[in-house]
């Protein structure tokens, strides 16, 4: 008989962990076939490094890690999670000091969505969730533009902004989240939403409010 232990996740929601993957080889093969990025599961090369966040205090062992490189990868990971009944956390740089960027089920890693497109004339930048501040700041050098960023250069934009984004320059330029004009995100049901002050305003408010990274299922 398979032994199960009932535990509480960091969100306070009950979950059942057995140590046995809750997906079939066929389901994993189907996911991988249409995946632009890569997936990592226990026993594959690099998994032990891939499962760790920046804070090694939390030692989680995800059943699967999806390294997404485009929007459709994120959609595919959420569909896989729904089909298999697995809980999801999102990870960009993995710097969550509370351990919210790792779990024992599914990690959707967006570090590969790291584009930075700068419109110097409009004084605007379009930045991927996984772009870190080393990359962003280097690309802003010489443009005369600045955005408050993490003191650690490997912090990524998405998690930093969702936590508010206080920086050394915030007394001059404000919080990072207050400089965001719009966000495009994949919702739990797999739909893609754009949020701004004029469209999906409640979602725009919430994503910039330091609400933390709680499981979506």
Characterize the structure shown.
This protein folds into 2 domains: 18-109, Uridine Diphospho-n-acetylenolpyruvylglucosamine Reductase, domain 2 (2-Layer Sandwich), CATH 3.30.43; 116-207, Uridine Diphospho-n-acetylenolpyruvylglucosamine Reductase, domain 3 (2-Layer Sandwich), CATH 3.30.465.10. It has 217 residues and is an alpha/beta fold. The chain has 7 helices and 10 strands. The relative contact order is 0.13. β9 (182-186) and β10 (192-196) form a beta hairpin. It has helices at 25-33, 47-50, 71-84, 133-140, 157-162, 170-173, 201-207; strands spanning 5-8, 14-17, 38-40, 64-67, 88-91, 106-109, 116-119, 124-127, 182-186, 192-196.
List keywords for this structure.
217 residues; alpha/beta; Uridine Diphospho-n-acetylenolpyruvylglucosamine Reductase, domain 2; Uridine Diphospho-n-acetylenolpyruvylglucosamine Reductase, domain 3; 2 domains; four-stranded mixed β-sheet; two-stranded antiparallel sheet; 10 strands; 24% helix; globular
Short characterization:
By secondary structure, this protein is of the alpha/beta class. Helix content is about 25%, strand content about 20%.
């Amino acid at each position: 008989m398979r032994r199960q232990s009932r535990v509480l996740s960091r969100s306070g929601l009950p979950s059942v962990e057995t140590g046995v993957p809750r997906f079939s080889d066929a389901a994993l093969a189907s996911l991988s076939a249409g995946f632009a990025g890569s997936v990592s599961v226990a026993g594959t090369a690099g998994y032990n490094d891939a499962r760790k966040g920046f804070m090694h205090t939390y030692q989680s062992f995800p059943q699967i890690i999806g390294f997404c490189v485009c929007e459709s990868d994120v959609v595919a990971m959420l569909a896989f999670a729904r089909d298999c009944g697995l809980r999801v956390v999102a990870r960009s740089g993995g710097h969550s000091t509370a351990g919210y960027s790792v779990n024992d089920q599914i990690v959707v890693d967006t570090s590969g969505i790291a584009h930075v497109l700068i419109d110097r004339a409009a004084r605007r930048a379009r930045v991927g969730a996984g772009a870190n501040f080393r990359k962003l700041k280097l690309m802003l050098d010489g443009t005369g533009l600045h955005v408050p960023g993490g003191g650690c250069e490997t912090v990524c934009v998405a998690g930093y902004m969702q936590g508010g984004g206080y920086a050394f320059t915030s007394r001059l330029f404000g919080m990072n989240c207050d400089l965001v004009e719009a966000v495009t995100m994949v919702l739990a049901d797999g739909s893609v939403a754009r949020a701004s002050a004029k469209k999906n305003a409640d979602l725009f408010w919430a994503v910039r409010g330091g609400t933390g990274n709680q499981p979506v299922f």
